[in-house]
Write a structure and sequence with these properties.
Helix content: 25-40%
Structural class: alpha+beta
Order of helices and strands: EHHEEEHEHEE
Protein name: GNAT family N-acetyltransferase
Radius of gyration: 15 Å
Number of helices: 4
Shape: globular
Largest sheet: 7 strands, mixed
Number of strands: 7
Keywords: Acyltransferase, Transferase
Distance between the termini: 38 Å
Pfam families: Acetyltransf_1 (PF00583)
């Protein structure tokens, strides 16, 4: 397998191509929740329940895409500096996703390293995130990057595991 050239760049999660990446993330995640592929209706319901994407644009945060040389989306991640559930000293990782065809290429590691750098550069002392217990690939990525399990910091009904990374 040839590893593509991967480029990271900022975009908005509410317009293309960021919106397409967010839909891919939601279809994949909702498919895991429900045991079936997520539909457009599922995506719409989820986005209505969690309308926090405004927190993923400057100055509250950032939304990043990983793309290949042809512009195909390989993954995405959001970083939220402010929000009702984000601890004051922390930034929060949101919408971390690697497209199924790009898994194993280091996309997730690259995205996570970039949001970690940005949180540190913004003066945050911690990086936090939530996930599900059954997302073993994601949990392995977070743990290898130094995240440790912590107490719940939000009321996300889909979350089962919470992580924090000390940035000091």
């Amino acid at each position: 397998m040839t590893v593509p050239t991967i480029t990271l760049h900022e975009t908005r999660p509410d317009v293309e191509p960021g919106l397409g990446a967010l839909r891919g993330y939601l279809r994949d995640i909702l498919g895991r929740f429900e045991g079936r592929p997520g539909t457009d209706d599922d995506v719409g319901a989820f986005m209505a329940e969690y309308p926090d994407d405004e927190g993923l644009v400057p100055p509250q945060g950032v939304f990043l895409l990983a793309t290949d040389a042809e512009g195909a989306v390989l993954g995405c991640v959001g970083l939220r500096h402010r929000g009702p559930d984000v601890p004051l000293d922390a930034a929060e990782v949101k919408r971390m996703w690697t497209a199924p065809a790009a898994r194993g290429l280091g996309v997730g590691k690259m995205l996570l390293a970039e949001v970690t750098r940005r949180a540190r550069d913004a003066g945050r002392s911690r990086l936090v995130l939530d996930t599900r217990a059954d997302l073993l690939e994601a949990r392995t990525l977070y743990e290898r990057a130094g995240f440790v399990e912590t107490e719940s910091y939000n009321e996300n009904r889909h979350a089962q595991v919470w992580y924090a990374l000390d940035l000091r």
